[in-house]
């Protein structure tokens, strides 16, 4: 049996080998474009220093954005949704049981009513 | 430490052998009457719980080690699985001893109302004993551990 | 009397780990190393047996095993019209799930040998791990509803005790208590449903029940009870809340075993929808119901993963989201039962079970490695670990790409099947699924950034790479992920398609038991 | 009607148990609620197995002139109930042990306080 058989999805197929070949081609292309880059770039000069609104970067540890804050803007934008979700996830065992019963009663209505 | 009265201790000590014997009876007749390994084991373990209540968990824990109980429990479970493995040549759990008169527990009981023959049932009585061992050890360990864990400092059990 | 191992292997798959479980306390009196080796050998032996059984099933069809009968295939004695003994029935789907469970159990055992060094009570830990394996295998192999309930309870009891393994952490105990309360409640409703079905048809065997099911009012009640309880055990929103607690607080080696146990509950949902109620018309409503619940699960799981502060809880919520993908795949197959893309959706859903267990498992093992090395699980106090733990970083990268469904990892192969088939049913479903997948990638990039990149933190100066046993366990999963990712068609043809065929033809399952001895 | 009384009792037991699980705050009472539900389910199984005029298949104590096997019942529901009781004992012991340990860590059994894991 041919191990390189593609997956047929009904309307197309997926073959990782073709993807890898395409990926490598794209990488080579990117590398070729990179060779045409700016020749004035020098390593070790002030060009490579991090730019922090004109401030001098001193303490590396404090500059690291912690994982909790990475998507601060996103969570702030969906504050209403997240506040609601936090209120639902109470951590109370009885609420877990209550959700289970609610789903069961909902299923009762749908299955006994529709089928 | 332990302030149950002398009456409770004495009566518990007298009752314990009777409870144990009744539990063993239930285990032994498991293949003839309602009951069996779990029920009889639970009766014996309740006798042990009686001792824990009367004498205090500390006194019992000195005599019976919890690790020994867990080994006993493993032995019961291993016995059960080994008995199931005996029939593997035919099928797993196959009752090899049943219906072979002359072998242990091999008597074929007559069909219909009868006084009950202890010598029948094949592997079932042996399996009942294995389960009984496991249940006695397991439930006794549970009672003992819960009694030790819920003990207040300086109070009784 | 010749002894044929293959014909006995359905029973041996249960018996060997069960024997090993109760032999572990005895053998651990010798030495800890002997015990570790013993556990690994027991699981490996079972896995080899399962592979042989799988080959036999793929060539010869369904295997059945009747306990205590005078022949393993004697399902009905002469005088009785219904099967009365406990019967194990193994078809393509069962053996597929068994292979998943055993692979995960093997990885968990290898990982445990070096993950636990300071803790005591490890002989009980291994006993419970083997019992959990037995429970999962039993749920997947059995052809008897009540026996299924027993194995379900074995699984929940042993996983509860394992979740509470770190008994000096209050959170572990809390998670374990929540888990046992909700799962014992669910199991009681399963038992109630079994009672309903037994009262109607005087049978407990799934094949016998499926043959005579009428879909009366009582059958509908039983269907609701079974579906609700098992969907809860599989962690479908809004009944997913026990899952992040349990996944997040258990030791990571236990967590991956519980991930596999959750998939066993999902298998039961499939078995009930496709086999037990498979001959009933009108299951497309159930399909749409599953799609709705699946979309909710994906959405809730992925969005809640974004705001978690603990590493393990984030991965746990991502696991909730991944469950939703399988559910919409399966739901699409039920909703569009006659269309051609239904089989594609079913294959995608089943394939994703395997991929999800591997991906989420690898991520949890990496989380365990981080906890082992730093004794810290909050995302706020971690950073710059790539300098010290380069292998762990590579494994996390592989798991990240796989779980987010990036090509060429295995997660993409199954997700594209789900996307394309759901798109033909309703484009909105696949749009939500794709967007959630992108969000999942964003979440894991965030974890990757905050955990492994960035400057070295002062409190993590003396972090070392984890021991070899854990690296071996992680590399097994990583290698399997890459191999499946590179040759998805091969696995599709040899593992997934037999499983999908077995599910979509319930009459084969019924005839194997009822059609002749 | 008289044969429906066990099923009404089953309903009542399950509802009482669910009430205890949902409305009570003490962990021990929640565990008791689960025990009550379990008794309800066990009663349901036993009630299913009842056949009028049937006899338990215990050969040692059958009355004279019993028709065998016509008058005997197949004791499957009883076996199911026993298995379920055994499992229930294990679950109960596990839950109580967890409650003891939780009391040691949280110094309370109020379920509203035992929720460090949320969101």
General description of the model:
The complex is a heterotetramer of chains A (115), B (157), C (517) and D (119). Chain A is built from five helices and two strands; from the N terminus they run ββααααα. With 115 residues, chain A is mainly alpha-helical. Among the domains of chain A are: 1-34; 71-115, no CATH class. In chain A, strand 1 (7-8) and strand 2 (13-14) form a beta hairpin. Chain C has helices at residues 5-27, 32-60, 92-115, 122-141, 145-163, 170-201, 206-212, 217-233, 242-249, 252-276, 284-306, 311-335, 341-374, 390-403, 410-425, 427-452, 468-486, 488-504, 506-514, and strands spanning 63-66, 87-90. The longest helix of chain C is centred in the last third of the chain and has 34 residues, at 341-374. With 119 residues, chain D is mostly helical. In chain D, helix 1 (5-23) packs antiparallel against helix 2 and helix 2 runs antiparallel to helix 3 (76-106). Chains A and C meet through helix 1, helix 2, helix 4 and helix 5 of A and helix 6, helix 8, helix 11, helix 15 and helix 16 of C.
Task: Name the pair of protein chains with the most residues at their interface, and give those residue counts.
Answer: A-C, 53 and 70 residues
The CATH top-level class label of one domain in chain D: Mainly Alpha
Q: Please report the distance between the alpha carbons of the first and last residues of chain A.
A: 45 Å
Please tally the β strands of chain D and state the result: 0
Look at the structure and give the mean pLDDT of chain D. 89
**Tally of DSSP helical segments of chain A:** 5
Shape by Cα distribution of chain D: elongated
Secondary structure: helix percent of chain A: 40-55%
Q: Beta-strand percentage of chain A?
A: under 5%
Low-confidence stretches of chain A: none
Question: Which SSEs are present, and which pair or pack?
Answer:
The complex is a heterotetramer of chains A (115), B (157), C (517) and D (119).
Chain A: E1 7-8, E2 13-14, H1 16-35, H2 60-63, H3 72-77, H4 79-88, H5 93-114
Antiparallel strand pairs in A: 1-2
Chain C: H1 5-27, H2 32-60, E1 63-66, E2 87-90, H3 92-115, H4 122-141, H5 145-163, H6 170-201, H7 206-212, H8 217-233, H9 242-249, H10 252-276, H11 284-306, H12 311-335, H13 341-374, H14 390-403, H15 410-425, H16 427-452, H17 468-486, H18 488-504, H19 506-514
Antiparallel strand pairs in C: 1-2
Helix pairs in contact in C: 1-2, 1-4, 2-3, 3-4, 3-10, 3-13, 3-17, 3-18, 4-5, 4-10, 5-6, 5-10, 6-8, 6-9, 7-19, 8-10, 9-10, 9-12, 10-12, 10-13, 11-12, 11-16, 12-13, 12-15, 12-16, 13-14, 13-15, 13-17, 13-18, 14-16, 14-17, 15-16, 15-17
Chain D: H1 5-23, H2 27-48, H3 76-106
Helix pairs in contact in D: 1-2, 2-3
What keywords describe this structure?
heterotetramer; B: 157 residues; mainly alpha; elongated; C: 517 residues; 75% helix
